[in-house]
Amino acid sequence: MSLPAAWAPPAPTSLAPTRPAPDSGPAPDSGPVVDSGPVVTPGPVVTPGPVVRPRPGAVYEAVLARPGWQLWAHGPAGWQRLTIDRWRSAPDAGDESLLARCTGATLDVGCGPGRLAAALASRGTVVLGIDVAPLAVALTRAAGAPALRRDVFGPLPGAGRWHTALLADGNIGIGGHPERLLARVGRLLAPAGAALVELAPPGTPTQAYLTVLEAVPASGPAPAGAGDVAASSPFRWAEVSADDIGTLAEAAGLRLTDRWRERGRYFARLERPSR
Questions:
Q1: pTM for the complete prediction?
Q2: Is the per-residue pLDDT at 159 higher than 80?
Q3: Highest mean pLDDT: which of 45-54, 76-85, 150-159, 230-239?
Q4: Which residues on neighbouring strands pair with residue 98, listed in sequence order?
Q5: DSSP string across 49-93
Q6: Which domain holds residue 180?
Q7: What number is the average pLDDT over the span 51-75?
Q8: Are 272 and 194 in contact (CB under 8 A)?
Q9: DSSP state of 241
Q10: How many domains does the chain have?
Q11: Taking all residues of the chain, what is their mean pLDDT, rounded to a whole number?
Q12: Which residues have C-beta within 8 Å of that of residue 95, sequence separation ≥ 6?
């Protein structure tokens, strides 16, 4: 609690009874002595320290653990509600357009709760989901697909032998450096293997930025601002427009072979050269 600028502590109150001065005769009657209690000396004013924000992964997992809760991200355009309900649901038409293009052993990068990996596993496709969030890995396994808690930039099984890699639900933004991410995915693919990536709509600026996450109860309002004390610590992310994917793929050593739209979502197929 802050104190007014003019505030000063009161002078200490003596608790001793009045006594006559030496050789001065009896003191006049001043009435009974009232005990006003102990003297309280104010302590120092404490300045609050910096706000300790939750890790982004902790906010993400809090929403995964609470069906119906909302997950919001703050980026260049302000707060945006993420489609976590769709991530928990069965594959929709946009997802099916991706799944139909998965050939051979498939790596689902940033698999989340596992709807795509589980759909592929149920169809007999060899698939592995990876995610840095332990709860996402647990949910993917519970849905029927194998999954590991791994970072895409760390050691991974099958490097250089995957036929397909999925970067759905905006995961091309992982790390805030799409060219670096695509180059890494290219090294995970077998020759002539392909990355299937979801993109921002045409006209969206391709950009990297700092973002934060916030968990909001199902009936709660949108977050008030990026400085909200409930928001996560910031982390780097990126958006890639469907307009720019060809140039970016080429810079990462991949080749754009297909681009399509399905139910308002945009996708591309990027192939690793066979030589």
A1: 0.81
A2: yes
A3: 150-159
A4: none
A5: ----PPPHHHHHHHHHTSTT-EEEEEETTEEEE--HHHHHS---H
A6: 56-271
A7: 92
A8: yes
A9: B
A10: 1
A11: 86
A12: 115, 116, 119, 168
